[in-house]
Specification:
There is one protein chain. Helices cover 78% and strands 0% of the residues. It has one domain (3-98). The longest helix is centred in the last third of the chain and has 22 residues, at 77-98. It is built from four helices and no strands. With 99 residues, the chain is mostly helical.
Length: 99
């Protein structure tokens, strides 16, 4: 297991935690969907591509945006940590896709 795969599974766990504990579930559902899709791509269960746009940029941007929104909305310590993980891993994926 590589570090990239481990980070994807950490993001899946964090987004699942936020989905189960959140009152409004739209943003956590988007984060959960993006992270599960990333996990399926990392395990090579699903192959997906977009014309002209790197998929890591799209999914990383979705994770970074959702993580930032969730960070601003939640107030408990565990949820803040989970939102931080989602935002930072998403930002790392966006930077990796851009650079």
């Amino acid at each position: 297991m590589t570090v990239d795969t481990a980070l994807v599974f950490v993001v899946v766990a964090a987004s699942l935690l936020l989905f189960l504990r959140a009152g409004k579930r739209l943003v956590p559902a988007i984060a959960l969907g993006a992270s599960v899709l990333e996990a399926l791509l990392a395990l090579r269960i699903v192959q997906l591509s977009l014309a002209g746009v790197p998929l890591g940029l799209v999914l990383g941007g979705a994770l970074a945006g959702c993580g930032a929104l969730l960070y601003l909305r939640v107030s408990q310590k565990l949820q803040i940590a989970a939102a931080t993980v989602i935002a930072l891993v998403g930002a790392m994926q966006v930077l990796a896709a851009v650079l």
